[in-house]
Amino acid sequence: MTSGQRPPNPAELLNTPKLSDFLQWAQKNFDQIVIDCPAILPVSDTLLWGKYVPRAVFVIKYGQTNAKLAQVALDKLQKAGIKILGAVIGHYRPEGLSYGKYGYYRTYAYYNDDKK
Fold first, then answer.
1. Is residue 100 one of the residues assigned to a domain?
2. Distance CA 86, CA 2 (A)
3. Is 70 inside a domain boundary?
4. Cα gap 32→54, rounded to integer Å
5. From first to last of its 116 residues, what are the pLDDT tens digits of the chain?
6. How far apart are CA 76 and CA 3, in angstroms?
7. What is the tally of structural domains in the chain?
8. Three-state SS letters, 59-106
9. What single string gives the DSSP state of each residue in 28-57?
């Protein structure tokens, strides 16, 4: 399900009875519900989901997530009562882990030592 047009007050929508009703309906009609939330540190929306979502998977952006900031984010989730099931590394690019390219180069240089 997509979100549609962005409302002027997205965080306030998480505190409406309609969201609770919707989640109850979804739990009755689906085996699994996945909620994709924004990053934890720039906005508080994710923490507001804590009263509806008891468990989460922590997503780490490969090559950009600072270990200290990740720990701060995990602490915030745990304080909100959200159990962390595990972590996933996103935005991974396998070409960044290659050994590089090997080639043959013909380079000539002449050295003149005038200090002798």
1. no
2. 25
3. yes
4. 13
5. 666 787 777 777 777 888 889 999 999 999 988 888 888 887 777 888 888 888 899 999 888 888 998 999 999 888 888 899 999 988 887 765 555 555 555 555 555 555 55
6. 25
7. 1
8. EEECCCCCHHHHHHHHHHHHHCCCEEEEEEEECCCHHHHCCCCCCCCC
9. HH-S--------TTT-SHHHHGGGT-SEEE
Is residue 69 situated within a structural domain? Answer: yes
- Residues present in the chain in total: 116
At 50, which CATH number? Answer: 3.40.50.300
Range of the domain at 40: 10-93
* Residue matched to tokens 């939330």: 37
The verdict on residue 99 lying in a domain is no
Residues 6 or more apart in contact with residue 69 via CB below 8 angstroms? 41
